Amino acid sequence: MSQPQPDQPETQSAQRPAWQLALPAIVVVAGVLLAYLALGRTDGDTPRADAPAPATSGTSASPTPNQSQMDAAARQLDSRFTRRREGDPYAKGRVDAPVVMVEYADYRCPYCAKFSTDTRPELVRRFVEQGLLRIEWRDLPMFGAESEAAAVAARAAGRQGRFWPFHELAFAEAPRSGHADFGPDRLLDLARRSGVADMAKFERDLADPTLRQEIRTDAAEGQEMGLTSTPSFLINGRAVVGAQPLETFVRLIEQAAKK
């Protein structure tokens, strides 16, 4: 019997906001680390993490790193990109949990919706509620202005303690193919149904540039690592790309907890 194939990650659209185009210099180093650590890339032409890097013109192929080098690279990524902020409204789980999974995603990405509805709840039940895992959300809006608008709305709901209800409702109602629509009326409707009490405040917060800057900070993190698809994850610094099967996440979380 063949093994189940992971879902394809959503790739970046051709029309990207101008702020997404300037990649920091660290992308080169981080991109190499991700190439060493990434699990289950599904974009066909990309080598697996355990394959030697392809040779470039006039150079020889880089050697495949050994396990100690991969572990060191994972620790570097974990140190750089895991926040562990007490009281973070965009995180689930204990701040001192031994395993942290950082999730980079877009509200308009159907594979992000699949992970949110099919996989994350089981990870919360098995690991977050047991104190073993912490999940930290990062916005990585890739599909135009509505992606960013949805991210802003979720954070505006978060100012009234309703980030996760808004977040989960938005993904629960998203289509499993194509990109969800998040026009102004829909965002207001989601806010009401997710329990936002003060809609006037919510609408004011939608216009607060602080929230948009928070989102762009998250996206800049993703760019530093060279992420070009959603969902993408770091599990104690180990990169996972795509809505992988539940068993993949379970195995990696259990492995990380033992180190």
What is the gist of this entry?
The chain is α+β, with helices and mostly antiparallel strands. The chain has nine helices and seven strands.
Q: How would you describe this protein?
A:
This protein has 259 residues and is α+β, with helices and mostly antiparallel strands. It has one domain (22-48, 63-258): Glutaredoxin. It is built from 9 helices and 7 strands, in the order E-H-H-E-E-H-E-H-H-H-H-H-E-E-E-H. The chain has helices spanning 27-37, 67-81, 110-128, 145-158, 163-172, 184-193, 199-206, 209-224, 246-258; strands at residues 10-11, 91-92, 99-105, 133-139, 229-230, 232-235, 238-241. The strands form 2 sheets. Strands 2-4-3-6-7 form a 5-stranded mixed β-sheet. Helix 3 links the parallel strand 3 (99-105) and strand 4 (133-139). Helix 3 crosses helix 9 (246-258) and helix 4 (145-158) runs parallel beside helix 6. The longest helix has 19 residues, at 110-128. It is globular, with a radius of gyration of 18 Å. The model is unreliable at 1-6, 12-33 and 40-61 (pLDDT under 50).
